[in-house]
Amino acid sequence: MASTKTTVSAKDARILDMVFNPEGTMLPDKETETMLNAEPTVIEAELLKKVKALEAEGVLMAEKDDISGAITKFTEVIEVCPTYASGYNNRAQAYRIQENDEAALKDLDKAIENGHGQIDILKQAYTQRGIIKKLKGDKDGAQVDFERGARYGNPVAKAVAVQDNPISQLCGAMVMEMLNKEMNGPK
């Protein structure tokens, strides 16, 4: 009797890992490994001090519901240091509050582009971008971003990636069916 060998794609292996190991981190893909292993952009100490101070001012403005002022401040951060990923990430959040999704998406792309080696930036940027893509109806693009956000440790992204993945849904349905049969007996 010939045996059939089933292989699972790398993507499916990562999804199955999320389903059956919900407390663990997702298996990284090549892009995630590259981003994690990349050295963060080095910003000179004085410049970093300046952009962090400007960024803190922008965050305070946002907390006081001065979203336009916050955007202006985050724009100043980006003008002073165009490679400072956190500035793009924060401005994207402010744009999202103003429901300017196109501007937010552009900033999230820049945050990801400049965020190599910065896990906190990447997990937030991918998750935010996934949310916007999902709202715009780009289910596949959203799924990819949620999976990447999950790989960097964002719990919201992980929950959504598992919940929205068709393989995960199928596995969940199969587990529920087996549990139901176990509890209620065969019919």
TrEMBL record:
InterPro entries: TPR-like_helical_dom_sf, TPR_rpt, TTC36
Biological process annotations from GO: tyrosine metabolic process
Coiled coil: none
Protein family membership: Belongs to the TTC36 family.
PANTHER family in alphabetical order: CDNA SEQUENCE BC021608 (PTHR21405), TETRATRICOPEPTIDE REPEAT PROTEIN 36 (PTHR21405:SF0)
Protein name: Tetratricopeptide repeat protein 36
Lineage of the organism: Eukaryota, Fungi, Fungi incertae sedis, Mucoromycota, Mortierellomycotina
